[in-house]
Every structure is written in C-alpha cells, then in structure tokens.
Design goal:
This protein has 145 residues and is an alpha/beta fold. The protein has 6 helices and 5 strands; from the N terminus they run E-H-E-H-E-H-E-H-E-H-H. Strands 2-1-3-5-4 form a 5-stranded parallel beta sheet, with helices on both faces. Helix 1 packs across helix 5 (112-124). It binds D-ribose. D-ribose (RB5) binds next to helix 3.
Length: 145
Amino acid sequence: MIGLGCDHSGYELMQEVKKHLDKREILYQNFGCYSKDSVDYPDYARQVGHALQEGSCDKGILICGTGIGISIMANKMSGIRAALCSDCFSAEATRLHNDANILVMGGRVIGVGLAMKIVDTFLDTPFSEEERHKRRIYKIEHPET
Ligand code: RB5
C-alpha cells in the first residue's frame, strides 16, 4: 500500500500520480490535500509518515512545490527515509542504497512524463540488501550512537 500526500503546489502532479497508479493497479491511500487551496505541507508529510510507522503503508509518495519542505518534515520522523528525486538515476540509487521508503518530488520542478518514470523506477527497484548499505542505514537510524 502506497501512502500519498501533497500540498497545494503538488496537488496537480499528485492527480497524475494517482491516475498512473490506478493504471498499474497499485493500491494507495490518499492522505490529501484535496484541492489547490493553500495548506501546510508538514501536515501531509506527518500523516504519510505515520502510516509507514504503523505499517498500514509500506511506501509513500509526497509532493510539494519544490519537494524540499515536505522531505525535511518527513525525514524528521523515525524510520522514514524520504528521497527527493528529480531524475531516474537517483530514484533507482536511493532504493538500492538507502532503502528509501518515501519518494518525494517537486510539483513545480519536474514535468509529468519524467515524474511518472521516477515513480515507476522507485516502486520497481528493490533494496540491494548489501551489507555495506545495511550498515549505513543502521547508522542513519541510530544517529546518537
Ligand atoms: C508552498 O508555497 C511551497 O512553499 C511548498 O510547496 C514547498 O515548495 C516547500 O518546500
């Protein structure tokens, strides 16, 4: 299950993401927002992050204008590894190396065609399971050690 969240600046691109996931018959839970009316992006990062933390979703997609604010918020949450991607190479690498569990995109940054390829790359690439990457992720998850 993919958790979806966006603010007003990401609303239009998120409509395309939903259509794309529907076409691929990938299940998602939409946490809003639900229109182009101005909202606060941290509220949507928080809801998607909680869904991953409690296990009702295993991955997420977040979109704001730049993708920056919403990823800063998501990455403050324990267990969340949110990756802001504007290219397919990064989307693939962040799954292989970082086991990123949330894809973040900037609705004002990239076009629909590229965004859908990034979504596919992110969702279709498994974590490498390599020891060195597991070790690094462990260090991310335990920053005080
Ligand atoms: C909203 O205007 C905009 O600040 C937001 O979507 C995002 O780009 C923040 O990082």
